[in-house]
Amino acid sequence: MPIDENALLPDPDRARVAIGPPSPGEGHWAGAPSAVAAGGLIYLAYRLRRPVGQGRGYAVAIARSVDGERFETLATITREEMDAESLERPSLVHLPDGRWRLYLSCATTGTKHWRVEVLEADEPGAFDPRTRVTVLPGDPKTGVKDTVIVRRDGGWHLWASCHPLADPDEADQMVTDYATSADGLEWTWQGTALTGRPGMWDARGVRVSAVRFDGDRVVAFYDGRAGAEENYEERTGIAVGADPAALIPVGKRPAARSPYGGGGLRYMELVDLPGGGTRLYYECTREDGAHELRTELR
Fold this sequence. Notes:
By secondary structure, the chain is mostly beta strands. The protein has strands at about 15-20, 30-40, 40-50, 55-65, 70-80, 90-95, 100-105, 115-120, 135, 140-150, 155-165, 175-180, 185-195, 205-215, 215-225, 235-245, 245-250, 265-270, 280-285, 290-295. The strands form five sheets. It has a four-stranded antiparallel sheet, with no helix packed on it. A four-stranded antiparallel sheet has the order 2-3-4-5, with no helix packed on it. It has a four-stranded antiparallel sheet with strand order 6-7-8-9, with no helix packed on it. A hairpin with a 6-residue loop joins strand 7 (about 100-105) and strand 8 (about 115-120).
C-alpha cells in the first residue's frame, strides 16, 4: 500500500514528551533522535545541548524503552571522548549479524568543520569512543553531519547535511547530499539530493531527516529555514522523487511546526513497529524556548 506521507506528519498537540531538555530555557535541548525497534524494545540515540558558550552539543545518549515513551539511559558519550567541540545528530543502526553501529556527527575544534565517525559494539550500551573510525571526513571546503542511514536490499543509503566552509559567515547554509555503500563504512557520494528554493521558506538550507522507499517513489521529510536568523528553529517539510539522489520539495509552506518560539520542529524520525503502526520522534521548541524530544504513535 502506498505511503501517505501527510498521515505521518507530526502533530505536537497529540505528542508525548519522551526526553526533556537538561535545563529550562533557550539553548537547552534534547533532540536530534535516531531510533531502532529491535527485540521487542525501542532503542533511541539523541543529542543533549547547552547554549553556545556553555558546551553546545555536549553529549549523545543511548537509551531503551518498552513502550516507546519512557526511556532508560544505557550510555552517554561526551564531546570530550570524541575529541569534538560539539556533537550533533547521531545515527543508530542494527546490523544483520546482531551488532550495532553508532554514527556520530563531530565538530572539529576551533573550526566550522564537521565530520562523521562511527563506533561499533555488541550491545547499544557498549559503544567505546576509543574505537572510533572516521567514515565521512568532509574536506577543507565542506562540513558533513546529521546522517540519515537506510539499509535496503543489501545496500546502504545515506543522506547527510553538507555545509560550505569557504566563508565562515555563510557556514550555516546547508544542502543534503546522497551517498551509497556496500558496507556502511566506505561511502561513494552520488550528488546533491535536495537544495533550498530561492524566496521560499527553505531558501537558506535543507536537511533530510527521514526517508522512506515507496515502490517507485522516495519520500523524505526534511528540515528547512528561510534565513540565517532561523538557525536552530527549522520546520519540517516533505520532498519526493523517483531517485534517492533527486528529491523535490512539496508545498509552499512548512508541513509541520511548533506553535512556540520560531516554530522549530525538526529531526523527524520514523520507526515501524513489529506489531504494526509507526512511532514518530522529533525535536520540538516548547513555550520557554527549550527544545524537547517528543513522540507520537500512528
